[in-house]
Amino acid sequence: MTSLTLFVALTYADAEHWPALVRRARELGAAAAVLQGEGPSLADRLSRLSGEGVTAVHLVGVTFGAHGVPASWIGRVARWWLAVGEREMTVLFSPDAVRGLPSALPSADGLRPLVPREGGLTNPTWQDAPPVRCHLLVCRGPRCTAKGAERVIDALGAELYARGMLDDEVLLTQTGCLFPCNRAPVVAVQPDMVWHGPLRAEDVPAFVDELVSGERTLRALTTGPGEPAARPGIP
Ligand code: FES
Q1: Same domain, 157 and 109
Q2: What pLDDT does 230 receive?
Q3: Residues 196 and 147 both lie in one domain
Q4: Beta bridge mates, 99
């Protein structure tokens, strides 16, 4: 039996640590994948390892941010992967994620192989788009990330959660470059087709007030002083 530890980065924010995680995995004789965002997906990495003759994998979540994604999603994805491909691989899963770069291979003692299950990635309540008021797209492109986008999305999440709006009235999503990079950090409001920037963490309470009131008062992108909000896209 050929076995391997596979470290799985849990969040989008972990992407900036991805090169270091890959290096550390190699040093430890392990491999790495991502649960979401850019990088080799967990399912693709498992398929590749299976094709290379690996017959047993120990999955370990890794996260670097303060706001984690439940590591249980690793188990769900792996069970689904086992089920849809009728795979022979033995997959073990550590329910506790490692915080920061792993310093050693975690023990797999006491872990039982995952049982294939196809339905773990679907749910009757995930069938339709939610009836939200708007969708905020927070740019995590290189310019916006350098200028504080991570703090912006943390502040937006906290403010919307505190007001009971997160996911019920407002969806919050991280994206790649939204194009008006000179205005970083940039947040776009859809379906309004309005881009805001720079929007800093300290601006967030006023920005959410604006969303609630429907009045545009704060740093909507304009083509010049006093001019109406631009509609970027077709010049
Ligand atoms: S990097 Fe954010 S708009 Fe381009």
Answers
A1: no
A2: 43
A3: yes
A4: 63
Tell whether the model's pLDDT for residue 187 goes beyond 80: yes
Question: Is 184 close to ligand 1, i.e. is its CB under 6 Å away?
Answer: yes
Give the pLDDT of residue 224: 38
Q: Are residues 20 and 70 in the same domain?
A: yes
Q: Is 18 in the pocket of ligand 1 (CB under 6 A)?
A: no
How far apart CA 230 and CA 161 sit, in angstroms, is 29
User: What are the distances in angstroms from CA 178 to CA 124, 152, 170, 221, 225?
Assistant: 32, 15, 19, 13, 22
Note whether 26 and 113 are same-domain residues. Answer: yes
180 lines ligand 1 (CB under 6 A): yes
Domain assignment of residue 115, given as a range: 3-122
Does the structure show a pLDDT above 80 at 20? Answer: yes
Taking the C-alpha atoms of residue 141 and residue 147, their distance in angstroms, rounded to an integer, is: 10
Give yes or no: residues 45 and 101 share one domain: yes
Looking from the CA of residue 140, the nearest atom of ligand 1 is 2
- Cβ-in-10-Å burial (0-12, 13-18, 19+) of 90 comes to middle
Please count the structural domains in the chain: 2
| In-domain check, residue 10 | yes
- Kindly report the average pLDDT of the chain as a whole number: 87
Residue 192 shares a structural domain with residue 151: yes
Indicate if ligand 1 lies below 6 Å from the C-beta of 187. Answer: no
Position 84 pLDDT exceeds 50: yes
User: With bands split at pLDDT 50, 70 and 90, how would you rate the model's confidence at 227?
Assistant: very low
Measured in Å, residue 194 CA sits from the centre of ligand 1 at 14
> Which atom in ligand 1 lies closest to the alpha carbon of residue 184?
2
pLDDT in tens, 22-41: 999 999 999 999 998 778 99
**Is residue 83 in contact with ligand 1, taking CB distance under 6 Å?**
no
Ligand 1 pocket, 232 CB below 6 A?
Answer: no
